Amino acid sequence: MINQMSKHFTLAEMTKTSRKGLQEKNRKAVTPELYEAGERLCEDLLEPIREHFKKPITISSGFRCLVLNKRVRGAANSQHCKFEAADFIIDGVNLLSIFDYITRSALRFGQVILEPNWIHISLGHPYRSMDSSGEMMVYDGKKYTHIQKESMA
Prior knowledge:
- By secondary structure, the protein is an alpha+beta fold.
- 32% of the residues lie in helices and 19% in strands.
- The chain has helices at residues 11-15, 23-28, 32-53, 66-71, 95-104, and strands at 58-61, 85-89, 109-114, 119-123, 135-139, 144-147.
- Strands 1-2-4-3-5-6 form a 6-stranded mixed beta sheet.
- A hairpin with a 4-residue loop joins strand 3 and strand 4.
- It starts with 10 loop residues before the first helix and ends in a 6-residue tail after the last strand.
């Protein structure tokens, strides 16, 4: 495995964590299969978003080993644990603007969630079932609200 996952994203930034004692464990948990999914995440979703906004993306959570996922209280079936999801911000760009761009774009995401402090995005089919791909939600800190494509017009 190489450190550069795509033009602008590295394995180090996609596996970083501020959780004490878990940084090295998290990075070492990346198998070649997981790495391949992480490359798809970077190439197919994060790079096009970066290109659209012409600004660097700051990853707050990329890959999570099971221990880290449990520590951050992530969902048991989180795509983060499969290197298929990332949480991010773009400095100087409103989260709603990022969410709006993604939901109106041709990006083939599995899930995009407008969170209070970041955007969550994950890979779609074949990493996620076709039926549950393209899912759009807003999370207000208490509940998730599904957004339909038609309501975005």
